[in-house]
Amino acid sequence: MTTHLLLTELTRRVRAEVHSRRPTCPCGAATLADRPDATVVRHADTVAKAHAPDTAPADLTPRLTTAAHLPGILLPPLGETPVDLHGRLVTFWPYGEPVDPENPDAAPWEPAATLLAHLHRTPAPPDLPPMRGPAKAALAMARLLTATRREPHPAVVPVLRAWRTLPAWARAETPMSDTTTLCHGDLHLGQLVRHPAPDGPWRLIDVDDLGVGVPAWDLARPAAWYACGLLSPEDWSRFLGAYRAAGGPAVPAGGDPWPALDVPARALTVQAAARAIAKAIEADRALDDVERAVVDACDRMGSTPPELAAGSAK
Known about the structure:
- The chain is of the alpha+beta class.
- It is built from nine helices and ten strands.
- The model has no long low-confidence stretch (mean pLDDT 92).
């Protein structure tokens, strides 16, 4: 199915979903995302998402059920069973107000960390699949290798070198050692919304990568930004302090958190660099300053072995 037809059909489907419940619908509509891995449209107070083409119902359904049963942490779906739309799984959600990208000073670092800590402390359902963080990092590397086979890029060498220093579990080559901790799998500020909009409490969204695994992965993107100089020490301290205050198990309650965070933070840095280079090649442009910063971090990482937490698999 072409992207245009999918978007048109998804828009029709979410309109029908809303009108079945609200005959006086104000009919506010928008396309929130239209990417190969996800198409998301909004109609009034309802959002419809067409998940990635390779999404398995057996994986998505328990993730939806988990979100439905944790409404104080995750935004609950409007139904626990995805529907098929021309071969794509579609789910429906209430609309939540996202983080304002134009107001970085209002970024909800403490709420994000507190929600993560509560998620990590929640017993995981027995049928939940593994958290997809390492698998997504491996996909980013595969995309980079495909792009550079067509067009070589000088920045690829330090990224590959940094990737090879990571333990096998962080490259999705072996299972993660933790098979019981409930994780989000792809935490960043775009994964938070206020519900009810516009000023309800913050909730985590996007269950595509939800699963069991190493909880430090959920702290890895802010940790990587901090290590690369893209997140201020003050914001990093707010985030880490709130996570610890809420009893989060990913790092020790005190002292140096880096033995637990180093490998996941390195993996997220490599993933960001791989995506940046691939996108730059595809758009025929140079790397911007932020993209260059993560590539430079990979260059530094390649000469220093990762710091492993006690008991970590290599």
